Fold this protein.
Amino acid sequence: MPRRQTHQSLGPKILPTMSPRTGHVALAGAPNVGKSTLLNALVGQHLAIVSAKPQATRLPVTGIRTEDDTQYIFHDLPGLLDPAYLLQERMRDLALETAGNMDLVLYLHPASEAPAPPLEQIARLTAPLSVPTLTVYTKGDLLTHEQLAALEAQALVVAADWQPSLERLLARVRSYLPEREFVYEPDDIGTQPLRFFAVEYLREAAFGLLGDELPYSFTAEVEEFREAERPIYIRATLFVERESQKGIVIGRGGATIRAIGAHARARLEDLLGAPVYLDCWVKALPNWRKNAAALTRFGFPAASTSAPAGTSSRSSHGSGA
């Protein structure tokens, strides 16, 4: 579980009381509306991967922010979209299931596209969610001063690097949270295992370094994680769907796989506060995005518990520190 290396106050200063508030808050909306960027800004750590390409978030990412007597547990959800294949169906199911279990859902929508349509229209729901929902306009820094003033008069508007807007958002969210003891230690910033973030940061590198379509065929799996060693040793397998894609991921002379590894390694070292040696290999697992057993293997809910072996071969290059 990630913990804060140095604490930085974000939210409004609230004097400690006898009744702390703790609650789960979903960041929901269409793909590419700034959910992951906002989560990272609220937590003060780069937990969720960020990409200009849509649909980078596949699994909900949990980030924790503890301010005085309030603990905010944020959940960055996969973007709500019409699924085209099984992976996207499960991403959508996970997003909606998580949203239904929250104390509050923040419905994010780009400020430049205000007004936002109803969330149930975006999510194609037959009825509104049964939990409180608050519309928040993102990317407010892209508006003119006049546009921003007009929108702020009627709604919450935020920008990830605009501190006052984050403080206003936290204050508003706090009013929805129930009186409840903290669930996590004040220095905790995430709930998922470090293996999860190793995979996510490798995927983030793929979105930044590979062509438009290949990142959607790309995933990773941590085979070995020796946290007690220095540097921390991580061996990961990078999966693509076709044999022909392996050479693209490796790159000429191993340049691309080195760059993927270097990006993920830097993110992990920042998160862990320790040096990391990341050893990467490439395999092909045909059509894994449409295969129920493969999706179970990679952490998506499925009825099947088995996983296909796939066709594979090891690349001749490792990415190290």
